[in-house]
Amino acid sequence: MALKLKVLLMIKDLDLLFLEVNNLEESMAFYHQTLGLEIESHQAEAEPPIATLRAGSLRINLVQQIETMLKRGRGVHFVFGLADVDEFY
After folding, report:
1. CA 39 to CA 46: how far, in whole Å?
2. What pTM was computed for the model?
3. Who wins on pLDDT, 40 or 78?
4. How far apart are CA 8 and CA 3, in angstroms?
5. pLDDT of residue 24
6. Are the C-beta atoms of 78 and 17 separated by less than 8 Å?
């Protein structure tokens, strides 16, 4: 079986979405108040400031990294859950 097809068949869900945002507080308000996501953690004093929200089994990390975004543009990082990670390797 081709590697690409094997990976697609093994993905069971999306576990984590990592989003870089311009303003952590405004982004948290949108995801929590407008979309109804649960806030799991909020670390405004961390470097960089970060918050984790939950939508069902999906965790969304919002990270305010202005300097990094100005240098290279926005970034998105996501993590897939696999049915059997050992089988993949």
Report:
1. 16
2. 0.69
3. 40
4. 9
5. 95
6. yes
